[in-house]
């Protein structure tokens, strides 16, 4: 089947060393199958805390050539090597076209990316300030949500692969909807997103594929069948009743 995706799928070969990721059910599941395919320009990885979303997304990003701590492919800072060795076993099935742009957002590392940009800009030998392409203001002088949207709106140029770990963490519901508009524009401009999320709003993105990681492995489901959606809906429909039951 013709696919215009930059990342069409991933394979993980048998892991020899005794590592924690070898025992994550989702990773074992991919190891035992031929290939985990991506079928949409927007793929969400969802599932319980600790199931392995960040481990997997980070290995995909590193296998694609991104700095494990986040940023563009040109970012080369390293503060602590907390990333796993899973990328050594992971192969990305690349599409026919190469991405012209890309960004890896690792929830914990926005701060470090901001420091790195400031450092480069403080170098008198450096060229034009990089912060100009991030909205003109140091990311440190913007709030968490502001700096994240500033990166998306100023730096994500389209025709790119964007790998994001819980982008909703920084954003108010209104700004999350704005992010979804940004994603829509970028997808219309030949981009691909792979996103780990807990947000039942974000995962409703039209046409996206939701891959649920669980103790059984990985399966493609409707966002309305995720626990995130079901619990949030039950809660919002009747918060008093649900909390009453819980507090009994
Ligand atoms: N360096 C490490 N050494 C040992 N175990 C680790 C290490 N990093 C992560 N883990 C474990 O691997 C599992 C998967 O972690 P991961 O961060 O991928 O989960 P996650 O699905 O992203 O969770 P969350 O939704 O909370 O972000 C967790 O049980 C975690 O404790
Ligand atoms: Mg995570």
Written description of the protein model:
Helix content is about 30%, strand content about 20%. With about 250 residues, the protein is an alpha/beta fold. It has a single domain (about 5-220), classed as P-loop containing nucleotide triphosphate hydrolases (Rossmann fold, 3-Layer(aba) Sandwich), CATH 3.40.50. The N and C termini lie far apart (about 55 Å). The structure holds adenosine-5'-triphosphate (ATP) and magnesium ion. Adenosine-5'-triphosphate binds near residues 20, 24, 49 and 52.
Topology:
Blueprint: E1 7-12, H1 25-32, E2 36-37, E3 42-46, H2 53-63, E4 90-94, E5 101-105, H3 110-122, H4 144-155, E6 160-165, H5 173-188, E7 192-196, E8 209-214, E9 217-221, H6 227-237, H7 239-247
Parallel strand pairs: 3-7, 3-8, 5-6, 6-7
Antiparallel strand pairs: 1-2, 1-4, 8-9
Secondary-structure element order, N to C: EHEEHEEHHEHEEEHH
Q: Structural class given helices, strands, pairing?
A: alpha/beta
Low-confidence sequence ranges:
none
Task: List the bound ligands.
Answer: adenosine-5'-triphosphate, magnesium ion
Averaged pLDDT: 88
Gyration radius over CA: 19 Å
Q: What about the largest sheet?
A: 6 strands, mixed
- CATH top level assignment: Alpha Beta
CATH homologous superfamily caption: P-loop containing nucleotide triphosphate hydrolases
């Amino acid at each position: 089947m013709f696919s215009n995706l930059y990342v069409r799928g991933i394979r993980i070969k048998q892991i020899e060393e005794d590592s924690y990721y070898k025992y994550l059910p989702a990773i074992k599941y991919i190891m035992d199958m031929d290939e985990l395919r991506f079928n949409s320009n927007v793929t969400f990885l969802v599932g319980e805390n600790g199931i392995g979303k960040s481990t997997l997304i980070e290995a995909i990003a590193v296998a694609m050539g991104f700095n494990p701590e986040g940023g563009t492919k040109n970012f080369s800072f390293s503060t602590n090597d907390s990333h796993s060795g899973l990328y050594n076993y992971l192969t990305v099935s690349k599409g026919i076209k190469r991405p012209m742009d890309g960004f890896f957002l690792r929830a914990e590392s926005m701060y470090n990316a901001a420091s790195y940009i400031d450092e480069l800009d403080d170098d008198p030998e450096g060229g034009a300030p990089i912060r100009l392409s991030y909205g003109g203001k140091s990311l440190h002088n913007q709030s968490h949500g502001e700096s994240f949207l500033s990166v998306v709106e100023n730096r994500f140029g389209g025709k790119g692969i964007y790998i994001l770990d819980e982008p909703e963490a920084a954003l108010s519901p209104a700004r999350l909807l704005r992010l979804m508009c940004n994603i829509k524009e970028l997808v219309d401009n030949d981009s691909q997103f792979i996103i780990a999320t807990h947000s039942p709003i974000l995962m409703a993105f039209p046409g996206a594929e939701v891959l649920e990681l669980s103790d059984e492995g990985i399966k493609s489901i409707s966002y309305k069948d995720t626990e995130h959606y079901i619990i949030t809906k039950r809660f919002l429909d009747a918060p008093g009743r649900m909390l009453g039951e819980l507090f009994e």
